Every structure is written in structure tokens, then in C-alpha cells.
């Protein structure tokens, strides 16, 4: 029996010039938005479009997988 993924892993980081970029680790999905809310919404929509008309089990995912999003921030160090 084949193990199906229960989550789609994605990361959001600040864009080079402005806004935010969201991308999935295991899917060819990348999107952007002006705000965090917008990029999350766009990421969900892009994932839905990627899976549209596909058999999720054949792609290695359970039906209605959860999306786990990590927000990448720059490290800040205290100065003495």
C-alpha cells in the first residue's frame, strides 16, 4: 500500500522588491501577493488549480490535504 501525503508544505518569504512570495516544496506552485493574507489566498488558489481535474491519490496526496505554511524571516541579533 502506498503512503499518501496528508499535508502540502509551503513557505512564504518577503519579495525582492515588495510584497511576499509563496512557494510549495513538492509541487511546482509559486505565487505572490502584496500582503500576507493575499499571498496565502493566492497560494491556496494556485494549489487548487494545480490539482484541478487530477486524481490526488495518483499524485501521492489524500483527498483535501492540509496546507502547512512556514513564514521565513531574517534573523535579528541583539547588539551588546
Structure write-up:
The chain is an alpha+beta fold and 80 residues long. The protein has one helix spanning 36-51; strands at 5-14, 20-24, 30-33, 61-71. A 4-stranded mixed beta sheet has the order 3-2-1-4, covered by helices on one side. The chain is elongated, with a radius of gyration of 15 Å. The model has no long low-confidence stretch (mean pLDDT 92).
Structure classification: alpha+beta
Average pLDDT reading: 92
Shape: elongated
Distance between the termini: 56 Å
| Percent in helix | 10-25%
Largest sheet: 4 strands, mixed
What is the beta-strand fraction? 35-45%
State the strand order across the main sheet. Answer: 3-2-1-4
Q: Give the uncertain stretches in residue-range form.
A: none
The H/E string reads EEEHE
The whole-angstrom Rg is: 15 Å
- Summed up, the helix count is 1
The tally of beta strands, per DSSP, is 4
Identify the notable features of this structure and list them briefly.
elongated; single chain; 20% helix; 1 helix; alpha+beta; 80 residues; 4-stranded mixed beta sheet
